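ok trying this again, last paste got cut off
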Amino acid sequence: MGAGSEELDVAVAVVTYNSERHVADLLDSLPAAMGELSYSVVVVDNGSADGTVALLDARTDCTVVRSVNDGYAAGINRAVRSSPPASTVLVLNPDATLDPEAGPRMFDVVRKPGVGIVAPRTREADGSLSPTLRRTPTLGRVGGLSFTGLAMFAERIEDPRAYESEHEVDWAIGSILLVDRECFDALGGLDESYFLYSEETDFCLRARDLGWATVYTPEAGGMHVGGGSGENATTHTMQMINRIRLYRRRAGDRRAWGYFALTLLVELRRGILGHRNSWTTLRALVRPSTRPPMLGASDALLPR
């Protein structure tokens, strides 16, 4: 890890929540991943109830910040504020790991003119490609019809050929993202109103609005286990509500009503097909008072 008063190359920002099973693997991967880059590591714990904090306190390779659980975006922002000055921010999920030299390879890309965010090639725990690249949300892509192979219906990019070369993308899953610090500051960090889910979508799209590109590179790699903090009816509901909120903020109320209606149909179909979490989500969509309170989206039928 870098030291001294000079600006570091990378400020690593991690947010944990009951991450005892995974976070040690992430931290252990960093020295080889960062190579000759100077870096700091700040882990913000959002109120874990397992052994995460004890595990972190026993280590000497990170600074631990204890926090209440006010959301993933707030945790990342807090980690960045608690970090020493650095030219980039490396946002990492606690259930991710980085391959050797991934840091310098992403760093080389983010230093190119106009690049604000870099996403590496990510694999699943079984070694298969993780399709982390996404297209801009639209009405046609509400249903997540990736199996059609048609861009107009699929937000998720699953074609393996799209992961073979470096190129600009609309946005990428936020499990591993290297962000130019000027870009991060220009956007005011992640939007904390999302609490959990859609914050990386919003961040990449807002960056593009300001002229900062999100670039995928296959030259850097990592692994993301996924679901490290668990998925349940509440988190699924948060995910769907935040998708509507993001679309509304970018497209306006009139088109957002269409997105809302299509989301209802999508969740109804999922529920009929056996996805029990979708019934909870449907209830929350039509009864705002039952929505997760941390979203602050319970005062109107169309989520704000």
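PB: full thing came through this time. The two ends are 42 Å apart (CA to CA).
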